[in-house]
Amino acid sequence: MMVGDLEQIEQWCLRVPVRKGEETRQALIREAVLDRTLRPRREGGAFILPVLNWREAAGRCLFDPLPERLALPRHELIGGIAVMQDHDVAGAEKILASRPSLHTVLYATSEVEGEYRTRTFVVLAGTPTTRTDCIEYGHRYTIDLSAAYFSTRLSTERQRIASLVGHGEVVLDMFAGVGPYAIAVADCAELVVAADINPEAISLMLENIEQNHARTVLPVLADVRNLPEVIPWQFDRIIMNLPVSGAEFLPLAFDLVRSNGIIHFYALVSQEGEHRQGISHLGGEVVSERYVRSYSPSQWHAVYDIIKKE
Ligand code: SAM
User: What pTM was computed for the model?
Assistant: First the structure.
């Protein structure tokens, strides 16, 4: 979520009937969980209230910032860490003081880069760490932003995929990182093989499996290219979240998914339908192509839900 300009800001939200709106708002203020820097809004018969953290029944919504928020420099919130876009120590101190839940303010000194898809940071304020906890939809993820990839902006997407998984499915998460997709789908699946090439991601995933009691997740430290030699199975569903270079792994995913199985393929695209032909060549049918989030003025992350035809 971006903070500090006129853009709308994504935050956790609670929807309540309008008649319950004021009562709920007061209760959230008493609990110190209402995000008082964002403007609550009405949608039909519902009152939508911004809350600071995930809680039961919360979803993600866009809000207009209030003046308190506009006074802060631009930053992104990831658990107890704020990541600034500028190297602004005074601004970092202001951000740190704006929320009791924040422990650290960082400045990213690189883009997301390399095989592990990580960034480098300097600490501008607070506790000198890149490690924090994020809670989403009832799951707690311990993350380390400089050691392994994690994005809060995918929380709604993870929830969407989890809602599609049927009981008893055997799922492969090809690029699992610290495990947020694998753990989100673990409640329904019989088994989730969660592979990643980054040892630190697997180490954090082990912590996350334990603290979420995700007993159906099998972490595998491997280059996914070698997976068929180690686990030569056919999966009911494959999650491929490596948008920049995932297309090169599509043939492998088609080898590993069973007929009529599903592939969720995330890709960086600059036009709609960009990968449809390639998918069709491999024997897939695109069930849906959805916008996930913006990447640059001319590119965005899309997700293709694909069925492997018999
Ligand atoms: N799915 C996770 C999430 O949503 O937080 C992580 C996604 S991140 C964009 C991509 C992950 O793929 C990184 O953790 C990286 O280490 C891993 N990766 C890159 N190439 C790989 C490969 N050849 N085999 C296995 N994992 C790979």
Answer: 0.88
